[in-house]
Structures are given as structure tokens and as C-alpha cells.
Automatic annotation (TrEMBL):
<dbReference type="GO" id="GO:0004556">
    <property type="term" value="F:alpha-amylase activity"/>
</dbReference>
<dbReference type="InterPro" id="IPR006047">
    <property type="entry name" value="GH13_cat_dom"/>
</dbReference>
<dbReference type="Pfam" id="PF00128">
    <property type="entry name" value="Alpha-amylase"/>
</dbReference>
<dbReference type="GO" id="GO:0005987">
    <property type="term" value="P:sucrose catabolic process"/>
</dbReference>
<dbReference type="GO" id="GO:0004575">
    <property type="term" value="F:sucrose alpha-glucosidase activity"/>
</dbReference>
<feature type="domain" description="Glycosyl hydrolase family 13 catalytic">
    <location>
        <begin position="14"/>
        <end position="435"/>
    </location>
</feature>
<dbReference type="InterPro" id="IPR017853">
    <property type="entry name" value="GH"/>
</dbReference>
<dbReference type="GO" id="GO:0033934">
    <property type="term" value="F:glucan 1,4-alpha-maltotriohydrolase activity"/>
</dbReference>
<dbReference type="GO" id="GO:0000025">
    <property type="term" value="P:maltose catabolic process"/>
</dbReference>
<dbReference type="InterPro" id="IPR045857">
    <property type="entry name" value="O16G_dom_2"/>
</dbReference>
<keyword id="KW-0462">Maltose metabolism</keyword>
<dbReference type="GO" id="GO:0004558">
    <property type="term" value="F:alpha-1,4-glucosidase activity"/>
</dbReference>
<protein>
    <recommendedName>
        <fullName>Alpha-glucosidase</fullName>
        <ecNumber>3.2.1.20</ecNumber>
    </recommendedName>
</protein>
<comment type="similarity">
    <text>Belongs to the glycosyl hydrolase 13 family.</text>
</comment>
<keyword id="KW-0378">Hydrolase</keyword>
<keyword id="KW-0326">Glycosidase</keyword>
<dbReference type="GO" id="GO:0004574">
    <property type="term" value="F:oligo-1,6-glucosidase activity"/>
</dbReference>
């Protein structure tokens, strides 16, 4: 649809640069490596690349701890490499967005170094400093009882200036004080405008709903009696001035027509999400809402890695909820089931117990994602059906600060049950899984680097999950993604922009929904089109729904547009084979 902004029907692809492609044999992915693969992404059907943080950083949280927003972390390359990447994308009609991490900086950022140097430093107020409290026994205590995302207190004591500073994440990630207008202007000028002037097309904006903290700094209610620190997202999520701050961000982006997609966690209520993405409100173009991707996670804070099994009907209901919340509004949705903070989709929503089931379920996940309304985001390796790390890898292979801290906390509890449960949860949900090297070929080093001993993350070796083994094979996961991205574009009126109606919601084995929208025929006529998406989420054969009844038309007016099944495993006419997905349509 010509009247729509480019980013609605576009396919975005997230690159986690450390794990994508290493060009200089140091075991760390880099910008020249990414540049050499832009053609691969272009061929896949990607329109816009989002690169996770590449800026100068001590890498306590894989670059989500920036110590200099205008410098590139040397192992990634140089600023000239960024210019070259922008040019390489633009020459192919593609766009590039960067990751903007401005809720916090690294503790090594110059701003924080100044801020912590004395209580009277002009940048003292750029971060959030508070005096200690003392308990009845006269012991020093943090200003509040809040628990951070990476376990432990949100406060770290600074010996030098005798105050605590706030950090929602690691202690090496102090939170910026957005209440200070000068700080905000520095963020806008030195991070956003700096990169927009260099030609980037926009930003994925990290932790976008946490900049405005509640300024009372009071204790949160006690929800975990076994811990001194309590979950307190209501103290910092969607705070009193958040919409004012986001509108300011919008003002910075607008002159560059830059696209924005904000990361909006801990906000399961659509009423709170809509204001961020309403066109009229002039805040953000899009947000990521995490209900679907968080399925299986335990309690957000204390129990995140205590796995909570879920049913297909829960997955359906959440998908429906975040499909339909924009209907009748001027807002827009995103579609995704992977990113760098979660386990692999096929390992969580599919079936990896045999190669055939792996392939079938990864293709059905592709069908599911590509038929949903909103802007589609893929995560690197999703298009190959990359899986979680093998079950045989022990806990020493987890490097992520969050996994390491949660596991240490479980160990410290000396509760064997909790330790085992945490290990199990990590094996499904840990952030590390998505960070394994991308698999370009079937060599021992998977084409990621030249010497696996140097790879920053251990390289998994199962065969068949690589670009080399899948490219050109019509039965592969990769070729199915390519085909689906093409169909999604071609019939975007239905798949990208259509309405979503869930059928048979209680069915725990088959998932069916109708997408309906307007299509433009070759001679320029607008016509209504309907598609039925039906997917078997089990290994058992499943009866097919009554297609023409579901589509509301005569049997001869329906056609099978796509099936995920290939060759011998193809199901019968009225029956879906294990993990088979199909699209029927009336156009
Ligand atoms: O994540 C922010 C966030 O709020 C969580 O959703 C995140 O997934 C984390 O796992 C909480 O348990 C962003 C980045 O995506 C993440 O990689 C960073 O670690 C984090 O911000 C801090 O910058």
C-alpha cells in the first residue's frame, strides 16, 4: 500500500554482531563481516537491518553498556566501517538502524566518571544518587529495597562520595537521570543526532519505557520474603514523565524521518501500550511487547528462570491479543518470536526431538510469523531454524551476566531443587542460546571464524543447520522463510495489514486463524481477500478444519496457497501431518 510508511510492510532483521560473521579471525564478529553478508540478507528478503550495540564498551552486558556513543568498539571495526555498512545497505535499497541504549551508560562512560568524582561535580545530577538509610542496628542500607533485573539490589555504594547510585541492570550500568534537561539534551545531541547525521535510518530504542522513574524513591511491597530485594517495576516502568520524554525523542527523530522501535517490557496492558504507538500521539513508530516471547518464563524477577510450562491455547490467546489491540486505533504492531534476550523459537515453541520434526516445526513457525499483522522482525539464525545450545553443554558455557547472576543466586540459596530448576530453565530460556555463532556452512568453524578455539562463544556442530546446507533446497527452513517473506509482501493487504480472527481457541493441537484485508488486483481494483492459516502444533496427525466454512465461501473458490510439508511427509487432503502448516485463501 503506497500510502503507508515504508517500515510497515518491511521485514526487519536483527544482527547480533559479535556472533554474526568474523572477518579477521579473532573469534568476534565484526562490521566488515556483516558488510560481506548484506547480499545474503538482501536475497532473503530483508529490508532493514537492526544491529545490536557496536559502540565502545567494556562488554559487561555485550555492549548494552556503552562507554562512548561516538566510538566503535575496536573488535567490531571503525566508524568508516559503519559508513560503508550504511552505504552498502542504501545501495541495495535497504535501511540500517542502530541500537540506542540510553536508559543507562557504562560506568566507564566519561559522564559517569565525572558524576562519581565528587558530590559537587556539574554532572553529579546526570545519574541518580541517593544517601544511605540505616537500619535499627545502625547498618548502612540502600535507599530502597528494589531488586534489579540481573539479581541483587538496584543500588551500588560509592565509597568515594558516600552515596548510592541507581542501576536497574548490572552495577556497571548506572541509570541516567532523565529528570535533568541538560542530560536529555546531551543524549539527543551526542547519541541520536550524531548517528542520524551520519545517515542511519533510525533506532531500536532500548528499555524505552523506563526513563521516567517515580521520584519518591520508596520501598516496594514485599513479594519475596526470602530476599532483601523486591521486584519494583511500578517504580520505573511507564513513569510520570515518560510520554513527555518520548515526545522529545520524537522531535529529535522527526527532521530525519527516522524510524523508531522501542523496547517496552513489563507492560502487559494494551491500554498502556497504545499511547506509545498512536500515530496522533507522535511518540514511537513501533514497540516490542513481550508477552509472547516471555511465555515459559517464571516470575519476572525472582523466578525468571524457573520454567513455567504453557499450553498452545495460551500462545494463541496472547498472539491474538497483540494482533487485535491495534484494531480501530491509529496504532501499529510488531511481530517477532526471537531476539538476543531469549531462547530460540524452535526450541521453545516447536519440536527439536528429531531432524524431521525440527524442520517441520521451524517451517511452521515461519508460516505463523509471516502471516501476522504488523512489522515483522527476524532474528539472525531464525531463518535457519537455529536451536538452543545442545543439552549436553554444562553451565560453564553460559556467559551472559543475567544467567551467571541468576545461577549464582540459586547456588547461594543452597536449595538443591532451586539449583536444578534454574539449570533447567536456563537450558530453555537463557539469553546465551541466541548468541551462539551464526552458521554459514558445515565446516567445524561453521564459517563464523577460522579458529573455533578463538570463538568468543562455543560453536555448536549439529549438521544441516547452516546457510550452505539449506540454500537452494526447497525443503529447507531457509528457503521456506524466503518464500514466506515474498508471499507476505505480495499479499500484504491480508498478511501485513489485515485483521486477525482466531478460530477454535480451545483446541490444544491445531491453531487456526483468518486474516482478512484488501488486495489490489493487476488492473488496480481493490478487492477483499481472506486467508485461513491452519497449523498442527503436535506430532500427531490432525483433522483439517472445514476450509470453505472457515473462509465463508464455496469450496471451488478456495485454494491451497502454501503448505510447510514437503515430499513424503505431506499430509492427506483433510489431514495435517506432524507440525504441518497451510494457508488457504479465497483469492
Ligand atoms: O533489555 C531490557 C529488558 O528490560 C529485558 O526485557 C531484558 O530482556 C532482560 O533480559 C531482563 O531480564 C535490554 C536489552 O535487550 C538487553 O540485552 C540488555 O541487557 C538490557 O536492555 C540492558 O541494557
Amino acid at each position: 500500500d503506497d500510502r503507508q510508511p515504508w517500515w510497515k510492510a518491511a521485514t526487519f532483521y536483527q544482527v547480533y554482531p559479535a556472533s554474526f560473521k568474523d572477518s579477521n579471525d579473532d573469534g568476534w564478529g565484526d562490521l566488515p563481516g556483516l558488510i560481506s553478508k548484506v547480499d545474503y540478507l538482501h536475497g532473503l528478503g530483508v529490508d532493514c537491518i537492526w544491529v545490536s550495540p557496536i559502540f565502545e564498551s567494556p562488554q559487561k552486558d555485550m555492549g548494552y553498556d556503552v562507554s562512548d556513543y561516538q566510538k566503535i568498539y575496536a573488535p567490531y571495526g571503525t566508524i568508516e566501517d559503519v559508513d560503508a555498512l550504511i552505504q552498502t545497505c542504501h545501495e541495495r535499497g535497504m535501511k540500517l538502524i542502530l541500537d540506542l541504549v540510553v536508559n543507562h551508560t557504562s560506568a566507564e562512560h566519561e559522564w559517569f566518571q565525572e558524576s562519581r568524582s565528587s558530590r559537587t561535580n556539574p554532572k553529579r545530577d546526570w545519574y541518580i544518587w541517593k544517601p544511605p538509610r540505616y537500619d535499627a542496628g545502625g547498618n548502612r542500607q540502600p535507599p530502597t529495597n528494589w531488586r534489579g533485573y540481573f539479581a541483587g539490589s538496584t543500588w551500588t555504594w560509592d565509597e568515594h562520595t558516600q552515596e548510592y547510585y541507581l542501576h536497574l541492570y548490572a552495577s556497571e550500568q548506572p541509570d541516567l537521570n532523565w529528570e535533568n534537561a541538560e542530560t536529555r539534551e546531551a543524549i539527543y545531541e551526542e547519541t541520536m543526532r550524531f548517528w542520524l547525521r551520519r545517515g542511519v535510518d533510525g533506532f531500536r530504542i532500548d528499555t524505552v519505557n523506563k526513563y521516567s522513574k517515580r521520584t519518591e524513591y520508596i520501598d516496594a511491597a514485599v513479594t519475596d520474603k526470602n530476599s532483601p530485594y523486591q521486584a519494583a517495576p511500578e517504580m520505573w516502568c511507564n513513569g510520570p514523565r515518560i510520554h513527555e520524554f518520548i515526545r522529545e525523542i520524537n522531535q529529535v527523530l522527526a527532521p530525519f524521518s527516522a524510524v523508531s522501535v522501542g523496547e517496552l517490557s513489563n507492560t502487559p496492558d494494551p491500554k498502556q501500550v497504545l499511547p506509545y504507538v498512536s500515530t496522533r500521539a507522535r511518540e514511537l513508530d513501533m514497540v516490542f511487547e513481550f508477552s509472547v516471547i516471555r511465555l515459559g518464563n517464571g516470575d519476572l524477577f525472582t523466578g525468571k528462570y524457573i520454567y513455567k510450562p504453557f499450553t498452545l491455547s495460551q500462545l494463541k490467546a496472547l498472539t491474538e491479543k497483540w494482533q487485535c489491540f491495534i484494531e480501530g486505533t491509529d496504532s501499529w504492531a510488531t511481530v517477532f518470536c526471537e531476539n538476543h534476550d531469549n531462547g530460540r523459537a524452535v526450541s521453545r515453541f516447536g519440536d527439536t526431538s528429531t531432524p524431521e520434526l525440527w524442520r517441520a516445526s521451524a517451517r511452521t513457525i515461519a508460516l505463523w510469523q509471516a502471516t501476522l499483522t504488523g512489522t515483522l522482525f527476524l532474528y539472525q539464525g531464525q531463518e535457519l531454524g537455529m536451536t538452543n545450545m545442545p543439552a549436553s553443554w554444562d553451565i560453564s558455557h553460559y556467559q551472559d551476566v543475567e544467567a551467571v547472576n541468576f545461577f549464582a543466586e540459586a547456588v547461594a540459596s543452597r536449595n538443591e531443587q532451586r539449583i536444578q530448576a534454574t539449570k533447567h530453565g536456563l537450558s530453555i530460556l537463557a539469553r546465551d542460546h541466541a548468541r551462539l555463532p551464526f552458521r554459514w556452512n558445515e565446516d567445524d568453524n561453521v564459517g563464523f571464524t577460522t579458529d573455533s578455539a578463538k570463538s568468543w562463544m562455543r560453536i555448536p556442530r549439529e549438521k544441516g543447520i547452516s546457510v550452505e546446507s539449506q540454500l537452494g533446497d526447497r525443503t529447507s527452513v531457509l528457503e521456506f522463510y524466503r518464500e514466506m517473506l515474498r508471499l507476505r509482501k505480495r499479499f500484504q493487504g491480508v498478511f501485513v495489514f489485515g485483521t486477525h480472527t482466531l478460530l477454535d481457541r480451545e483446541n490444544e493441537s491445531t491453531w487456526a486463524y483468518i486474516k482478512e484485508g484488501f488486495l489490489t488486483t493487476k488492473d488496480g481494483h481493490r478487492m477483499r481477500g481472506r486467508a485461513l492459516v491452519v497449523m498442527n502444533f503436535t506430532v500427531e496427525r490432525a483433522p483439517l478444519v472445514d476450509v470453505s466454512a472457515a473462509l465463508g465461501c464455496a469450496p471451488e473458490s478456495t485454494r491451497l496457497m502454501v503448505t510447510t510439508a514437503c515430499g513424503a511427509v505431506r499430509g492427506a487432503k483433510d489431514e495435517l501431518s506432524a507440525w504441518e502448516g497451510r494457508i488457504y485463501c479465497d483469492f
